[in-house]
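ok trying this again, last paste got cut off
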Amino acid sequence: MTLAPEERKTIVALRLESARRSLADARLLLAAGSVRGAVNRAYYAMFYAASALAIAGGQSFTKHSALISFIHREFVKPGILPREHGRALQKAFEDRTEGDYQDLVKQKPEDAAAMIQAAAEFIDVIVGLSSDAAGHSAVG
């Protein structure tokens, strides 16, 4: 991805704002009893944050699985992003996929609440990392 530094900064900020909005939506949906909707929005909160981190480092992905693999390879494996956040991102992706595409799946409110908490923590960590990503040799 070839972007001018200001364009990259703008897109990163927009993705992080999308992450925050999706997180707020997840909380509202769970409060309204929409567990599947909450799981979906919690995952997308994490997805937008992960995407911001990738873009900050000059990377862009068209597949969710490719973005998640990138996050694991470049940030989790070297210890930049704590393993629990990598696991939370992977689990959120799996739970969101299951909820979106399997009719008979039952997702529990307490699991959605835990995912929302994990998403909030993930976003907090990503905000700090995204400002440092341009200096990260693997993505710079």
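PB: full thing came through this time. The radius of gyration is 15 Å.
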